Every structure is written in structure tokens, then in C-alpha cells.
């Protein structure tokens, strides 16, 4: 921290915080994006055997670094607990929060934050033992339910059972590992968490085939990256990093063929990859910003399949996270 | 009676009866068993005795059964049904049954390939792989230093002790962090100059050159000056370029981080604690009130809230974008917190010293500092060795709380690896927790044994 910057920062605070420093300039000055991730969630942000961060949330941050610096490795990760995450963002400790955070109205409007879009459409699901013989969540009257304490999961399941006039018993634990152990040992009849979490925890069951996931999805959990309010340039970069990845999948560009596509005559492809127009310059980046994202990190399909897709242990189908053309709801505004 | 008469009596023996071996059932394993186990359960002389015998028999063999089956369960889990190798690199597959999506035929116990794959993370956290030799060097220096100090007959123990307490922490910080810290020159200069000034004022004050106030408080001013000088010097050393790659503290983790936090707390808490304990018993109201306020404040808040405040609240008060190292915040919090506990332990020792010791020291013409240094503290600290080590062990285990502020200590990084879907099996978490528990036990048990050794060595004249 240089002295001059310190004084500027103090002056900024003194002026009732009205002078928002341009995050992009700060990020360029320090040479990396500081990205807040979770302390460990399979497929979203976890460390591999060598200690490198992997996951879909992590790859989003790498994509931002690729867009800004043309180098996907110029990103540092701050693992945050659920309690810390918003303070860390509003205090400037991190530049972007990519931590499986559900986009809700309260968070978007009352915390001084902006959601840049939806990286993964999740929803709360339920898993039950097959021997219970139920096929729908509506038949679960009187069930004992294993949940994590203090999460929206707990609230959602309570709301769901109450609105359907069913009785239930909550068996709550602090850590998701304890929840799944309790479910596996028969302490409760229902295991509930976000669908992606159900897929991950199912790997830890003694007899995974004896359990089934019920069709009902009882809540909407659109998970997306978050930035501070009041810096539109940075907000735009966060939004369009995500949009570029989705558009790239739609247009069929991936890390393998991006070099060939640079020669494409298709005007919309030229706009995406920056061979025509000044779309990158307009948001403070180089014109080949999206080409860097696709070449260094990949399009949406690639990061999905690498981290949570059918070839990973999580084996999550695309479902609603498929493109709008393929029956999903992923739809990014065009670049033009 | 004479010898003559005694020899005449025919039924008196003239030589000793041969020494027979004790009965078979009173020696060896059987004897031990009869004496210690069976004796409480073979008395059927009355109804009451019989009931009690049966009760003890049921209790003994019941507990024995429980204990053995627990041990057997552990042995079965860790050895018999455990998976040791993963030659084909199947990861979770090798530790799961076919139904669970793997290749094992029966249910699997401990998944050791997982520990093997993650071992580097457990020990070094996310420290860059090509720089691991630096951490190893720090570990080796620590181990050699500690062994040297423990071994009574080693030469130059005094110098090694001095080295371990002064130069070693700085060298370790340089090796781990890589130096090149970008402190402002003005900050370093401020610490060095202010430290030197305070030190000079203290020295001159003690010689009665700067008036009454500094004559009375010269010692304290001098110590404060030294503390500032030390901080300045450490910052100066850390900012040189040693040709090492810089490794930011967010990449420190695992056992290494646990040791850094615990050792900092241990090394810092003893001296600060002694000063606070003396302050609390001081006759000067200012020192006493300050010490009491400090101790009661830090003992009044849980460590977890100290850490939480330092990580969540502090950044809100600091100017936006200020990057005040998270690890440093945790280290300061732990050191301040543990020194308050240490102060009360040491105060217990001070109170155990009789008034006669002070009076004797005064009669010899010793001043307050000399009395404390030569008479009181050596005795007081010896008495409270169990308490001090108790605090150290508690502190070592409390370091796991740093997970709450996003630092991955040994336990934190082990829990973090449970989130890796490539290794998710029903027994992964149990294996991980077993490893964590064993490593923590190893360190705490080691400290506890050394404390017993120290007590034995130092108990001159107090043995009952």
C-alpha cells in the first residue's frame, strides 16, 4: 500500500464514501483480481490434490482475470464463510464475490451490492431412501428431516411443509458432513439441500443406489457473482464476463477452436472475439477480452462439464442450466 | 537360655528351611490378575459380598469387552478393511464399493490413498510446490533447536536458546514469507527512531537526568523503546530482498500454519503474561489498573469473537482497500488473548511465594527488579509449570478456531478436502478426522511429557 493511495483512500472515506474508487484501476494497479469463494463446496469451489482452487465459481473468477489481464492466473482467492462474505465485499477486501450466493431481493437492494447475473440455477431438492416407497414430496407427512442449521434450506423446508399442511421434525446439524452421516445412519427420512449439494453428498452414502432424489424442487436458488454497488464499469465487466461465456457456447466457440474462429467472417462472431468493433474498449478492457476468456478458461459448457457435468463425480445434468435453445433457461443478451 | 540348650531340643530346626518359589498363582500374569482383578469378585461368603462380587465381575468384563471392541473396531478400520494403495489412480473409486461407484468388493475402512494424495495440503497448505524446501528448512531448524534445548548435555545450550528466541523467528518469517515486504520506509524509520528515543529516555531517566517521573518509570520506558526497536528491526529485515520468491500468507496453511499460530502465541504469551502478572501485583495504581483492565477484558471475551472482530469488523473501520494481513490480525489476537490467561497462571505462582522471601531479599539489599528476577520469579515459575504447559496445550488446540476467519489450519484444510468430489466416499471424513486427531494428540502429548520431565528436574526441595 503506497502512502499516496492510503491518503486518497482516507480522503475518500472522509467524503462520506461518495467518491467510489474505480475498482478496475485498483485491480490493474495491484495486478490481480481478489475473488471471494467458499471454504469448500464440491464442484463450485474446492481445492484439488495440489491445492489449486477448482470449480465453477473459481473458473468465473479466472475468466474475469483473463478478460482484464489476458492471463487467467492473475487471480487470488479468499475463502470466506457464509457470515463473512458480504462484509468482505463491501469493505473492499475482495473485488468480486463468487461464492454460490443466492440472488435475492434483500441482498440485491439492501446490502449495497449488485448481482452480475446467474452462473448456476440451483434449487432445493430432497433425497429419500427408496424403501420409504414415496414418489413425491407431498407424501412426506410426519417425516424427520436432516438439514444444516442457520441456512435458507431450513427456512425453505419449513415453509414447504407448513404450506402443504404436513407435520415434520427437523434434525439440524452444523456441518453438511454430519447431516449426511446422520441421514445415512437412519436418523431421519429426508435429506435436503440444494440440488447440486444433494448430488455431492450422495457420493458419501454407504448405499447410494438405495436412495432417490424426489422430483420436487421447492425453492429457486439462482447463484451468481456479486460486486459492490456504485461502480458501473466494474459491474459491467462482471456482467459481460458471464454473458460472453454463455454467448460463446451458443455460437459454438470453445477453447479448442477459438484461434480458428478469430478468422471468422461472421459479424456476430467478429464482435464477440473483438476482431471488429470496440466492445472491449468501451468497458475499459482490450478488444480481445472475450477471446481471452474463451481461450484461457473456456465457454460456459466447458466450465460446466469440467466441474459439475456428467463426467465428474457429481454427474449433474444440464437441466435448466442448458441454453434456451436446448430447453434450458440460459439466455445471454447479444453483443452488438 | 544358651545355645547349648537350644541345640538339645530335638524339634528345633538347625538350618533355615529352603526358600521355595512363591505359589504359581501369586506371581506373574496370573498373580497380577488374581490380586488386582479377581480379588474384588471372588468373595461369596455372604449374600452382600456375593452381590458385590457379581456386580464387579459384570462391570469389569463389560468394560473390558467395550474397550476391546472399540480397539478392534479402530484396528479393523485403520488396517484390516482399510485401502492402502491406489495404483491405478482411481481416486474415490478405489475406496468405494461397486454399489457406491467404485471397485472395492466389501465396505471399506480408512481411505489412506486420500491421505497420501492430500498429505502435502495437510502439512503445507497451498504453499507453492517448488518452494516447499523453505518450509522444510524451517521445520528442521525448529526440530533441531528444540532437541538441542531438551538434551541436557548438549554444548552451547544458552546460545542456542538465545538464537531460537531471537534470530530463529525472524529467519523463519523470512524463509516462509520470502522477504521483500513493501513497508513504507517512513513507517520502518518511525519505529526505529521512536524506539531509539524511548530507549535513550529510559536509560537517561534511570540515571536521574530527566526529572522525577522518568526516574520512576525509566525501566518501563526503556522496555517500550526496546519493543519498538524490535518491531522496526523485524520490519527492516523482512523488507530486504533475499532472492526468495514472495509467498503471501493466504497460501500458508495446514500443519505449518497451526505451528506458526501456536508458536507465536506460546512465545509471545509467556513474557507478556509475566509482565502483566507482576503489574497486577504492583503497588503502583497505574500499572495495577492497566494490568487488571487488560486481563479482565481479554478473559471476558471468547477467542472466537476476538478473531471474528479482527476479521469482520476491523476492515469496516479501516480505509477501503487497506490490506491488513489476515494472518497477522489472527496472530496479534491470539497473542493478546493467551497472554491474559498466562498472566493469571503466573499470578498464581507469585501468590504461592511467602512474604519471607520478599523480606529476605530486602534484607540482602536487593531492589524490586532484582528481587523479582533472582528470588521470586524462579520459584514462582517453577511452581506453575503445569499451569503454563496447560495453557500452551489449550492454545495449541484453540488455533483451530482460525478457520472462522478463512485461514486453513490443519483441521481446516482437512475439512476443506472433504469438499473434493474426486475423493468423496463414506469414510473420507472419518479418515481425515482420524489423521487430524492423531497429529494434534502427538503434539499435545509431547508437550505434556516434556512438562513432567521439567517438573521432575526442577523440584528441588518441594517433593513430598
Give a structural overview:
The complex is a heterodimer of chains A (336) and B (464). Chain A folds into 2 domains: 21-121 and 222-326, Periplasmic binding protein-like II (D-Maltodextrin-Binding Protein, domain 2); 124-219, D-Maltodextrin-Binding Protein, domain 2 (3-Layer(aba) Sandwich), CATH 3.40.190. Chain A contains 14 helices and 14 strands. Chain A has helices at residues 3-14, 23-30, 56-69, 85-90, 105-110, 152-163, 176-184, 195-202, 232-251, 258-261, 267-273, 279-282, 289-296, 300-307, and strands at residues 33-38, 46-47, 53-54, 75-80, 96-97, 113-115, 120-122, 124-129, 143-148, 168-173, 190-194, 211-213, 221-223, 226-228. The longest helix of chain A has 20 residues, at 232-251. Among the domains of chain B are: 24-80, no CATH class; 251-407, MetI-like (MetI-like fold), CATH 1.10.3720.10. Chain B is globular, with a radius of gyration of 31 Å. Chain B has helices at residues 3-8, 28-36, 47-80, 112-124, 132-150, 157-165, 167-177, 185-206, 212-239, 254-280, 285-300, 303-317, 326-351, 355-363, 368-383, 385-398, 410-417, 428-458. Chain B is mostly helical and 464 residues long. Helix content of chain B is 67%, strand content 0%. The interface between A and B is large, with 53 and 48 residues.
Give average pLDDT of chain A, whole number: 89
- The proportion of residues in beta strands of chain A is 15-25%
Biggest sheet features of chain A = 5 strands, mixed
Q: Gap between N and C termini of chain B, in Å?
A: 47 Å
CATH architecture of one domain in chain B: Orthogonal Bundle
CATH architecture annotation name of the largest domain in chain A: 3-Layer(aba) Sandwich
Outline of the structure:
The complex is a heterodimer of chains A (336) and B (464). Chain A is α/β, with parallel strands linked by helices and 336 residues long.
List keywords for this structure.
heterodimer, A: 336 residues, alpha/beta, D-Maltodextrin-Binding Protein, domain 2, 2 domains, five-stranded mixed β-sheet, 14 strands, globular, disordered N terminus, B: 464 residues, mainly alpha, MetI-like fold
